[in-house]
Design brief:
Helicase_ATP-bd; nucleotide-binding; 3 domains; 3'-5' DNA helicase activity; P-loop_NTPase; Rossmann fold; binds zinc ion; six-stranded parallel β-sheet; alpha/beta; seven-stranded parallel β-sheet; 10 helices; about 425 residues
Length: about 425
């Protein structure tokens, strides 16, 4: 058993003296409470065929039943390891990034909460490096949590590279890594529910400009996973309204890292649920919401850049759009020999809709282009890719805004891809 994590019955190999246990689900049937995930919503509990009550909300982390216990060891002060200058990074921060970095360092030193309000693509990971170093120098235990698995997977090698000596594990639904008392944990926000009184600092990368709505139980999970004096640092491009108000009133500690070079913010993508689009495409149909969006842009004479997870999907959608009367359409992908010419024709407005794989996600600028992703849940659309795609809109100072829409198989409330 390792301190700081909750074990289910049978998961603890030995029973050390210090082991403590508590009931997983408390209360009676009218007022249930799952200690592990914080669920207290009646319809998020269910019964098995044999009548055993369990929590549906954290089912993906193995079922907890009413009679189950959670076992844990309290993390001890003398388990801490103190590192000397663990950060091995030769990179340089921009002036704006330094402002963010200094605020993170100060929050870590004082164990005070912080909102790092940073526009997507502003280099937020680099802004955490110095704060992490200070934390490890003080022997603190740190978690970096993101709602998205792909973000965690991308972060692992980056943090391993800059903190080569700090034991680090990356935890997500089917991760190879298993928690073995590491001082530094990268985890999906879902994994936080397994921890108890362990972290001194929890970074929460909300990625909330993207099709992943805020987890209603996240606050509980963070509170439970941190130590009594621990703190949390939220990193987000678009804080919720209440938080923005608190920042304005000066009651929420925050640092705001501004905008892109022309002073306007990155367009905030809108997530639109379109259901099982693959099934529809088989019948040569696409969701009305997509067609309406295209129609709206074309009525305003805006060029459209539409991204796809796969080449075949792109061709199928092209066919449907042509049937719907859109004729000035072209497709590009990495092996397309005419790619350059097609991009030029789109830039010259000879074509009005350009369909693309992720090949055009970076490096291209089109004036006043409106951007959408079809099937944004696809694995190719990592956070980094979606940030780049969103960045295609509003690049020109003359047209600094633009719509960005992510059409997705999942609805915002779906947890399917999030643990
Ligand atoms: Zn639960």
């Amino acid at each position: 058993m390792y301190p700081g994590i909750l074990y289910l019955d049978g998961e603890q190999s030995t029973c050390p003296d210090r082991m403590q246990s508590r009931q997983a689900i408390a209360g009676d049937e009218k007022k249930l409470f799952c200690f592990r995930c914080g669920n207290n919503i009646p319809h998020l509990f269910a019964k098995t065929f044999s009548g055993i009550l369990y929590c549906r909300n954290c089912l993906m982390m193995k079922r907890v039943e009413k009679s189950a216990c959670l076992h844990y060891l309290e993390a001890k002060e003398d388990d801490r390891i103190f590192f000397t200058r663990p950060l091995k990074w030769a990179g340089k921060l921009s002036v704006a990034q330094r402002k963010g970095s200094d605020a993170v360092v100060s929050a870590v030193e004082r164990l005070e909460p912080l909102l790092l309000w940073a526009v997507a693509g502003s280099g937020k990971t680099e802004m955490t490096f110095r704060g992490l170093e200070v934390a490890f120098e003080h022997g603190m235990r740190v978690c970096f949590a993101s709602p998205r698995v792909d973000v965690c997977i991308e972060l692992l090698p980056r943090f391993q590279e800059v903190f080569p000596d700090v034991p680090l594990v990356c935890l997500y639904g089917d991760s190879e890594g298993r928690f073995q008392g590491e001082q530094f944990v990268i985890a999906t926000t879902h994994q936080l529910i397994r921890f108890y009184h362990y972290f001194d600092v929890i970074f929460i990368d909300e990625v909330d400009a993207f099709p992943y709505a805020k987890d209603p139980f996240l606050e509980y999970a963070v509170r439970k996973a941190k130590t009594e004096n621990g703190t949390e640092i939220y990193i987000t491009a678009t804080p919720e309204k209440a938080w923005q108000d608190e920042c304005m009133k000066g009651i929420r500690q925050h640092v705001k890292i501004p905008a892109r070079y022309h002073g306007h913010k990155l367009p905030v993508p809108e997530a639109v649920w379109i259901g099982d689009w693959a099934k529809r495409l088989k019948k040569k149909q696409i969701c009305k919401k997509v067609l309406n969006w295209i129609q709206k842009q074309r009525q305003n004479d805006k060029p459209i850049l539409l991204f796809f997870p796969k080449i075949e999907v792109m061709y199928e959608v092209k066919e449907v759009l042509e049937q719907a009367g859109y004729l000035k359409i072209e497709t590009v992908h990495s092996a397309d020999k005419e790619r350059k010419e097609k991009v030029e024709r789109f830039r010259a407005r000879e074509t009005s809709i350009l369909l693309s794989t992720t090949i055009l996600e970076r490096g291209v600028t089109f004036t006043d282009v409106q951007v959408a992703v079809f099937g944004s849940e696809g694995v190719v659309f990592t956070e980094a890719a979606l940030v780049q795609i969103a960045g295609r809109a509003g690049r020109k100072a003359t047209h600094p805004t633009g719509e960005v829409t992510f059409f997705s198989l999942w609805s915002n409330t779906g947890n399917e891809t999030r643990y």
